[in-house]
User: What shape does this take?
Amino acid sequence: MSKIVTLGEIMLRLSTENNNRFIQSNTFRADYGGGEANVAVSLANFGIESEYVTKLPNNPLSDSIFRYLKANGVETKNIVLGGERLGTYYLEVGTSVRASSVIYDRKYSSFSTLNYNELQIESILKDCKILHLSGITPALSENCKELTIKIMEKAKEMGVLISFDFNYRGKLWTLDEASPVLTSYLPYIDICFAGILDAKNIMKLGDHSDLNEYYKEITKKYPNIKYLLSTKRETHSVNENSLTGFIFKEGELIASPRYTFQIVDRVGGGDAFAAGALFGIYNNHSPKDIVDFATAASVYKHTVRGDANLVSKDEIYNIINNGISTVSR
Amino acid sequence: MSKIVTLGEIMLRLSTENNNRFIQSNTFRADYGGGEANVAVSLANFGIESEYVTKLPNNPLSDSIFRYLKANGVETKNIVLGGERLGTYYLEVGTSVRASSVIYDRKYSSFSTLNYNELQIESILKDCKILHLSGITPALSENCKELTIKIMEKAKEMGVLISFDFNYRGKLWTLDEASPVLTSYLPYIDICFAGILDAKNIMKLGDHSDLNEYYKEITKKYPNIKYLLSTKRETHSVNENSLTGFIFKEGELIASPRYTFQIVDRVGGGDAFAAGALFGIYNNHSPKDIVDFATAASVYKHTVRGDANLVSKDEIYNIINNGISTVSR
Amino acid sequence: MSKIVTLGEIMLRLSTENNNRFIQSNTFRADYGGGEANVAVSLANFGIESEYVTKLPNNPLSDSIFRYLKANGVETKNIVLGGERLGTYYLEVGTSVRASSVIYDRKYSSFSTLNYNELQIESILKDCKILHLSGITPALSENCKELTIKIMEKAKEMGVLISFDFNYRGKLWTLDEASPVLTSYLPYIDICFAGILDAKNIMKLGDHSDLNEYYKEITKKYPNIKYLLSTKRETHSVNENSLTGFIFKEGELIASPRYTFQIVDRVGGGDAFAAGALFGIYNNHSPKDIVDFATAASVYKHTVRGDANLVSKDEIYNIINNGISTVSR
Amino acid sequence: MSKIVTLGEIMLRLSTENNNRFIQSNTFRADYGGGEANVAVSLANFGIESEYVTKLPNNPLSDSIFRYLKANGVETKNIVLGGERLGTYYLEVGTSVRASSVIYDRKYSSFSTLNYNELQIESILKDCKILHLSGITPALSENCKELTIKIMEKAKEMGVLISFDFNYRGKLWTLDEASPVLTSYLPYIDICFAGILDAKNIMKLGDHSDLNEYYKEITKKYPNIKYLLSTKRETHSVNENSLTGFIFKEGELIASPRYTFQIVDRVGGGDAFAAGALFGIYNNHSPKDIVDFATAASVYKHTVRGDANLVSKDEIYNIINNGISTVSR
Amino acid sequence: MSKIVTLGEIMLRLSTENNNRFIQSNTFRADYGGGEANVAVSLANFGIESEYVTKLPNNPLSDSIFRYLKANGVETKNIVLGGERLGTYYLEVGTSVRASSVIYDRKYSSFSTLNYNELQIESILKDCKILHLSGITPALSENCKELTIKIMEKAKEMGVLISFDFNYRGKLWTLDEASPVLTSYLPYIDICFAGILDAKNIMKLGDHSDLNEYYKEITKKYPNIKYLLSTKRETHSVNENSLTGFIFKEGELIASPRYTFQIVDRVGGGDAFAAGALFGIYNNHSPKDIVDFATAASVYKHTVRGDANLVSKDEIYNIINNGISTVSR
Amino acid sequence: MSKIVTLGEIMLRLSTENNNRFIQSNTFRADYGGGEANVAVSLANFGIESEYVTKLPNNPLSDSIFRYLKANGVETKNIVLGGERLGTYYLEVGTSVRASSVIYDRKYSSFSTLNYNELQIESILKDCKILHLSGITPALSENCKELTIKIMEKAKEMGVLISFDFNYRGKLWTLDEASPVLTSYLPYIDICFAGILDAKNIMKLGDHSDLNEYYKEITKKYPNIKYLLSTKRETHSVNENSLTGFIFKEGELIASPRYTFQIVDRVGGGDAFAAGALFGIYNNHSPKDIVDFATAASVYKHTVRGDANLVSKDEIYNIINNGISTVSR
Assistant: This one.
């Protein structure tokens, strides 16, 4: 029971460089990312045995993804090869008052055609302590909806903890489409990443005044959920935000410190929070330690280019314990 | 009466990259810009039929300018070819306490030799609703002084609205040289971009306590001026400024919200304001809507590399209506 | 009857830089290309009025394509907006013994869903002297097969000359699939770009000893074909080839000089030949002049990055007339 | 007995870019390489289980090396951490008549302090079919001399085949220093990479007229040597060479075809030959097949930036079987 | 007595680009720096005759250093050639909450082997008004310790003013190692750059409440020290700091204004302060003018890439007198 | 009598990168060059004391030129500051069949306004053994014509050897304009760089069958000319040429070996030949040694980016003595 497995879609990300707009760009930076892959990569960099499962087309772009995952020490042996194309997205990196902009080109991706039967499910879940999934997968296709629920059932059966990040994406499905699907997963979930908007708009809970009340209601309805987590983001400008993390455990809501910081790369901030939290939960840390580590990790991620949080646990502890220094020599 | 025409000089801009100083630079980024060209390009991106008139030497650098203008949908058919050289300027991009620095190499440019007779003036002003000029042109040469007044007379005669941006440049001429020339244009102008310093130092108006008083005096002397506009810039650092826009219409001074923002490229901020204002005036918007759009457009420009505001009107409205978001997906 | 129209798919091309392999690349250079678009861009650079028709998704990547076409002076007003995605391909640029490698990601593209009814066909073919199509289009989808034949019929009806480049792509369909489709177009074609392999494998003609014999047989069967053209490429290495062009007109086969040259960008060499030939045919040049210009243009293209031949007709004539010089000053 | 192990030094290579000389360079491209590491990486890309052993300092530069090796699928678990610094070398990339130039900064490297006792030698050699070493290691330090002979003895004892590449480097030691050391290894070697100059200057064999005679003498003296291999390089210019490979097995000398090719990166050409040969030997291919594959692999390497041959076996077979094509689509 | 001489180690600095972490970097930017070299370069840019003395290996990397120094107008004729290697360091440039990180690879450098006897000491100190040294040199090797004290004695003897920057580096030696060495220099020093931590931890002075008290005690014990200087840095984030400079002269502590600023390159900020101070001291400016210039120079340095302050004295005076402007044109 | 002085115009050169055409370029590489500056820089790199004289505008672009010259060890103390602008030229770097293309923007440059009286002529020519001028200078302006002849007269008077490179540029003046001017210099010249075309078209000599005959006639008419030199270039392609050097001394014509080579940067090839020849003449080498060194130097220059030959004399001797090697390690 020693590894953490994540399953989802990884995409080629093509980003504009040097503050150019799309229409000014004649080069793109290539990175690879997707919520669950980002979590796996971040966990491996924290020193946790992690495995990532997906489906990729059989071409050299996928080779680059395998190399990226292996370089980070993520197990790739259960990745399925096949399908027609690699999901892709284009990112125009914003700054100041200009928001970043995403063009998805992920339809018809290999992952969206992944069937439960293609997976070596026993090999994947054996020795697995936590399985991490997200609400992006069921948004991709009917296949992926079916896949998600079947994996959850199997994981439950094998005694694996289920971590789930709601990650609602308005460009992939409507709230009305997402609500019944995501809500149906709640009885399976042990660790749940969901915020006020998820509680209100997707779980369709009553009107509460604050996060604490929402979390109380959720855990009353779904006593199986051991951890509820989310962050509150304040946007001062596209390149300066504040972030506070929250964890709800055994009826108590605990907040992290509030960080204000400049942003190099906004994408993957939520996944870094999830990875930070799973790191603490995996190691049975206290709720306060879990949320402090997860929030500092998420803040740190905003300074790293690419989707994933390329940082060691010591570097995160250093920020938590010593604050910010400019240079060590 | 459907197009807006701008006439002036466009230059090759060679900028330092990656925060290098001039003496550290062995590459330059090439852009093309000039106040009136920037206005034309911005208007075309807002969806307005716009035409740009200038004079360019017959060489491949000018080809690049034609391609740039055409890519943006700006009409170029009345551009005159000839003369000896393309005006050029070098920009050291500053940050923090280090100001940006400009080296002009625009003397003897083709545009500075443009004669009124070289222009297909009927073709240029036919179907033209607004003609936009600036105070940079008469600063360039005697030719250009004569050109400016002749075009204004012709435009007046043909019933075209005249927009004029004072744009005083201390590196091109002294206040004493500029004052009589620019003041002589005032009776022709319908839409005037001029601030407190222009009123004081160029129009030589009496000492007033605020912009409102200056604008009242100007419109009393020149009742032909239907719109008076300007911005107030506060410099927190080279890469963080605040900006507020002002419009004076029918005796009333109206201010935009005040924006504080980080800066990617400071050049062309004023031209983006002018283009934003002309967009509103062209569409007969209310003074409040005009100044709000113009100011948001100017702020947005500071996030775009190059001289011109490569942004659609929807993106500006999005900032006005929804404030700043970090990423949409 | 003054313009040349081309219709087909244009794709975003993402190329590796600095001799990197795909798995070494973390940036890609972005260009835009497709056989018919390349012909339109090249013709516009030769000074011919050209228009390009395609279908593009409604997103900022398509904006970049519009800007690229407009910068080159290609008319874009009949381009259809809609569909799901922009066709994309990845190019690993080879050299020496390492071949260039292409990964197509063009399935489900907007263009592949284009229906004849979506086209403003009257506007497109009015004043059109030559319509240029290629064998790539029918390889893309059933839609595109139907589209191709319907346009040919309409063009015939409206007295437009039809130019067709066989352009067989083994990654898109098999010879058995292509043969009946492409052969069915032959009765419509006035200008036909097809080589020995096309004659043998697609038209399924008998075994002849040389190109001349093949061309004789083709024109005997399809007397409507006024021009038959092709090139012979010799591959000394991935970055050094030789090229000879051939034209068959009124029973006579004429060859261009044989050029040996180094290669900067191999893609679009055939399209540059087609554009060069159409330039000569449009201007009623002699067969010898047509093939000499087309071949020199194709050779020149190999020195230009991107898919299209960004070169003026004077530069081509300079090579034909004066051979190679190193620098003019 | 399924893996191939290589042991030696890996260095950070800092190369000039864009044909700049050292004194023109203000950026360097970073790659990682060393003869034995290059062999391990190349073998892994051919699909062979390969492991690399070295000693690295405990800092983030070594992290990059681990990531590079793991990305390529090379086992790294027996790499020793410790010592003071990472060996480094600077490469000025030449072209035409300007030779490439190397500045070594490898003295005092962690690897040069590696002791036999620091190695998990049982873990390293277990299941190892071939151990590959080179003459660079004993040139680095007394430590490394001792290390080399001890490993050979242990490998012999454990029934592992020993492959050895003479790789004489005049910048590291003199012929007089190298000769007794390298000669003393000959009785241990099964697969020997050594050419005419090695035979003459290091083994101090008598004067023979050709390679065949030298190889006959070597195998007479050292009947343990099952394979003798080398290449003959002809230098037409710094960026155009010809290469022919030779293998001597059971008394017979067999040559590969002679390839003439352009060069992107000359470094690692010999290591690519060794890896190609070990691939064939590992798979019990015929001598002709071994040398043909090894030579084509070496030629291919010259087209790949960096020290190692990032190529699959299929790509090499494609060149052997089909010759050179320009692009496949 | 007209020149200022500095002596110390200069290193090749290899920095990450575009906010990449070390493990993401496959290029490095190359600069050259070291405390004393930075001071010499900055002084030369202020128009002061300056000379730099060091020891460099005889290879092309050193050629680049000579070229860098000569380009800046620094005299290099007394630099000693020899030794084994150039000291190197790697800089991961941080931002926001991510600190910059340095990997030193300077051990065994040529400079660390420099002996007093290798220096043309008479030529170096002749006509020298101020000799500037730092506490980095004695931390490098026993050689360098001996060298430092011998040079100080000789300078004293020849009537040269001695400037010394404590520059304690925890990565090079411990406080216990540094304390006796650095303290032993105090009787020789005329101009001393040392702050509260140096006073407390290295000079081991008693516990005082503020800088003024420390400086009083120092000058009581070492009346030879004519100037004591330091800065106070406040770290708001890795890329935003505040800085205040202090000077103590004839019993009085004077502070500069406090600047808050964004950071392009943090390295060399202290050296820029030292150079600014030496500029004022050399020119016999008032203490207030000295510290104002030094502090503004240090702040300016944070906007310049590389180790040294590439700025003229006029640009510093412009900030002192006029504050910050965005662009002059 | 120990230094060589060169006088002429130096320009900012802005070159396209990565094989882009002008219209594809949005960055330019910046170098500095001009025939006489190139000679001075090359000579300094050969270890000869060299000084360069010109006139530059007082702006930061000139600072970069001073830094470039000083970095190369060229004396700059007699450079005159003043005038309006820095001469500039744009270079589209060609390859294969695509010629490089130059756009001059040098009119009205500071140098073109240089008057003889502005020069510190005594300081310039004192201790000068050879003064090198070229035919570009008199082509620039009337000023420059007068300047050239006056300097020649003064040099003659002071016993300085005069070297002159005809360097006819058709873009600057016609043969008819150049002929009387350049011919009038011949009685002053000791070392003359002029080829067959110069003899025919500018000196208007009779029709001879070969270079030897022309050189005989020239030295008969102008017995003051001690050395006549030129090269013969064969253009296989834009990036592959052959070059042979010729020297005529005391009635004998001697040829260098013929080199065939690939080209990185064609500009400055002739200046490198001149510098190589002056190096030999300065050191009283034999005519054969002079022409061999000059030709190898010129060939080498074609592999170096920028205008000047950044190479030591040892590197040239290495090519002459050992031919081409690929890498030394």
In short: Chain B has one domain: 3-317. The first strand of chain B starts at residue 3 and ends at 7. Residues 17 and 137 of chain B are 29 Å apart (CA to CA). Chain B has a mean pLDDT of 96.
